[in-house]
């Protein structure tokens, strides 16, 4: 999630709370059909799927160097399942990947771009001090949460440009010790400034800076946290670094696998499984992909906040998104209400049971790649589908596998619904809701008795 703007947008738009329970009928109970089969989002994620999710989230793919995820993990996984005729598209300006189910692209076929972003917020070497301390840029991390964490620094070999070496085992530090911290920092009145962070490699002896430079470490080298996800203590939870947004790429890849195995829906809908770059610095990758591929519909899949689980924000009245209660669906900003209606209907009618959806509210900006259409100058119906996580942009982001699986099936249900209803690109041109046709809605006839006593 594109973080900095999100905070501003949330602050600027906290008006009335949007009621957000959505379609929860199938969540804890069974599917509406007379079956005892448990819905996929109610099951414990299999070890095989969890391992694939972990592999995607572990790929070292900082902003600008996303190929470890797109080419190292996603392309081989999807090449193994792709039917003949799917195309794997690459781009000059980034390591983005688009898997196109119908590169022939007949104009009357609805083209749906499902987009996760492969880039991770990165730290970067800013300056090497005379004693060998490697000062870093903390990008969109909360600086205090980085202290003490192990990282890997990736350094291009100046003697062999294009070849990278990895230095693991160092930690991020800033304060040195409580003994050197000011009283205000000790009490928590003051925090850790981003520009005080440095990589501690244990450099000692004379000419510290020269020793570091002799290794080939230089300004601009990226660093990533060493924190692969693990299953959590509470059922179906997991935590680690870079849920943002390996999870969106996992959702997109799992959807591709599911549709590859039952390709009927793809007879009338063209899918663009999209793994974009540069989201975290302003959604600069997906807008180019949208401009190139001209989708009719864009479904961004990205992490969202568990606002109910966030400490100290109750008075802000954020939408009541909660871990473990299903996928989230954005309304507001540039999202298409007709597309959202279609998605909610598809969620309710899904063959495997009603999919739990939590309605989110965005103000000016979705904070996600759903902006790709307008930013790329492409006419598309768009929305964001997400999963509430805790501690976003820290080393210990945590989420719920059920929410992630619900998001996968929410998009699948939407694609199947578009196929079953024969929806063409022109459908969205005529589907805009008419508020001038709204019917009157009265208040309740009777106020219920107070049974709280
Ligand atoms: Zn983010």
Automatic annotation (TrEMBL):
GO terms for molecular function: aminopeptidase activity; metal ion binding. The keyword Protease applies. Belongs to the peptidase M42 family. Keywords: Aminopeptidase, Hydrolase, Metal-binding, Protease. It comes from the Eukaryota. It holds the Pfam family Peptidase_M42. One of its GO terms (biological process) is proteolysis. This is Peptidase M42 family protein.
């Amino acid at each position: 999630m594109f973080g900095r703007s999100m905070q501003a947008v949330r602050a600027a738009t906290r008006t009335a709370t949007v009621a957000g329970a959505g379609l929860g009928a199938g969540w804890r109970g069974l599917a509406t059909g007379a079956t005892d089969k448990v819905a996929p989002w109610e099951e414990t994620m299999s070890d095989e799927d969890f391992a694939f999710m972990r592999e995607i989230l572990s790929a070292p793919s900082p902003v600008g160097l996303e190929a470890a995820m797109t080419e190292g993990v996603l392309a081989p996984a999807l090449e193994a399942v792709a039917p003949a005729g799917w195309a794997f598209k690459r781009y000059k300006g980034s390591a983005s990947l688009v898997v196109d189910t119908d590169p022939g692209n007949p104009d009357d076929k609805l083209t749906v771009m499902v987009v996760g972003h492969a880039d991770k917020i990165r730290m970067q070497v800013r300056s090497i001090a005379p004693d060998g301390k490697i000062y870093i840029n903390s990008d969109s991390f909360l600086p205090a949460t980085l202290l003490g964490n192990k990282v890997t620094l990736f350094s291009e070999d100046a003697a062999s440009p294009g070849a990278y070496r990895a230095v693991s085992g160092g930690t991020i530090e800033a304060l040195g010790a409580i003994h050197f911290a000011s009283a205000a920092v000790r009490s928590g009145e003051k925090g850790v400034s981003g520009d005080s962070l440095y990589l501690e490699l244990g450099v000692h002896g004379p000419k510290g800076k020269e020793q570091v430079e002799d290794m080939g470490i230089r300004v601009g080298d990226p660093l990533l946290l060493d924190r692969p996800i693990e299953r959590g203590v509470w059922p179906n939870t997991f935590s680690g670094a870079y849920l943002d947004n390996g999870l969106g790429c996992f959702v997109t890849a799992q959807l591709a696998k599911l549709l590859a195995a039952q390709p009927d829906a793809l007879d009338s809908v063209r899918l663009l499984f999209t793994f974009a770059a540069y989201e975290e610095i302003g959604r600069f990758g997906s807008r180019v992909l949208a401009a190139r591929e001209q989708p009719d519909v864009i479904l961004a899949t990205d992490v969202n906040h568990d606002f109910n689980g966030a400490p100290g924000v109750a008075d802000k009245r954020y939408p009541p998104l909660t871990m473990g209660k299903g996928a989230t669906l954005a309304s507001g900003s540039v999202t298409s209400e007709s597309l959202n209606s279609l998605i909610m209907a598809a969620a309710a009618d899904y063959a495997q049971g009603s999919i739990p959806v939590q309605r989110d509210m965005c103000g000016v900006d979705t904070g996600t790649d759903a902006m790709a259409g307008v930013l790329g100058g492409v006419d598309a119906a768009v929305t964001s589908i997400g999963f509430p996580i805790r501690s976003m942009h820290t080393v210990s982001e945590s989420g719920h596998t059920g929410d992630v699986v619900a998001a996968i099936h929410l998009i699948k249900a939407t694609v199947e619904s578009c196929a079953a209803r024969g929806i063409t690109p022109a459908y969205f041109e005529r589907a805009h809701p008419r508020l001038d046709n709204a019917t009157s809605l009265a208040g309740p006839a009777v106020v219920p008795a107070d049974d709280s006593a």
